[in-house]
Amino acid sequence: MRKMLFVFLALVMNPSQGREANNFPDLPPQDMVLKVMSEYPGVMAARSGIDLEEANQRHLNAGPYEYSVRLMSQHRSVREPSQGFREWEVDLERPIRLPNKAAIDRELGTHGVEQASLAHGDALHEAGRSLLSLWFAWYREHFTAEQWQGQIGTLKQQLDNAHKRVRAGDAAKLDAMLSEAALAQAEAQWQQARMREQIASTNITQRFRGITLPSNPALAPPKPLSTSAEYWRERILMHNHELGLARGETKRWRLNASRSQADRLPDPTLGLRFVSDRDGAERVVGVNVQIPLPGSGRAAMAEGVEAQANMASSREAAVLRKLEAEAMNSYATATSSYASWKTMRSVQEAMQGNADLMGRAYALGEAGLTEVLMARRQALDASLSATLAQIDAAEARYRLMLDGHELWPIDQDEGGSELDKGDAKH
Questions:
Q1: pTM for the model
Q2: In terms of DSSP H, where are the helices of 169-240?
């Protein structure tokens, strides 16, 4: 309930974030993402893990003990006077779990379900990371192929200009040959880029069934981060499932340690006894109590579990340090990627202007073809670098938003899981 209130207050205080979390021009639609995530095998396996822990919770609540019945029938023979008697005995027994142990078991069961829910959220988060990575891998190859295709058109025009100058006697045939070679090289690069694009397309559509790639994908200008590194650090650590699972593991071993300490006092076994002797002439009803005598093994077991709890605590501290570093690195990557894109965009504009100027100069006979081709290639390299920097900046920002749970509502701790609305079990 408090988590839902936190999300509500966050949206009220920053409504633009709530609107932005719906759809993004350079990402797949949110509805498509939610559907794909709900059907992702890793997420479905994690959802089954919740079913497993709920069953284990019921088992822990019920306890490990059951009733046992022992039946005995016998015939007694007496010599003097010679007689025979039918006799029977029934024993009903059950170990009794002490109240403090039952309370710990119930807490362990509840905690197991919580851990399974965290694992489900972690599976969703990791699937989201994979989707982002594959989506932008396809973006890179698509726009690289598009850049080479544009270069082919430019080089064809350059080849026409070379042929015109050759026919007019203003240029040697070597110019036409160089133009044809540059065009063939560009076409080969375009074919390779198309092949890589197809591979990237297959990777994402096969791993995430239901994702439809746009025919004309948008390349939206990246946005700068408007919040501080500390804000993102707190957001990421607040919602991080790996940290939650590590903390939960420490808690689980602490509970197990408490359970092992409680087990140093064995559970008693209570029983009822019904006896019929001498054909029912004698009837006995009794109560028996059996108490195991604890040995050194129980103490050693408790010490071992305590050591496991200390190990889990140390692993939790290591996970926290790692995630703090990753959060800072993600923020630094997002900010530096945006700055790099702005720089590369300026370089692209300058190089493109130079290439256009050299092209006009060649058409007027004021520049050689070698200088023109070099200027074209430099402009293409700058354009490719700017495009890839733009994609890198967008991916870095979205990755940061995903880790901070501000991208897609694909998690169980974000106002109730959108993915589970169609699943009555969860």
A1: 0.79
A2: 173-207, 229-239
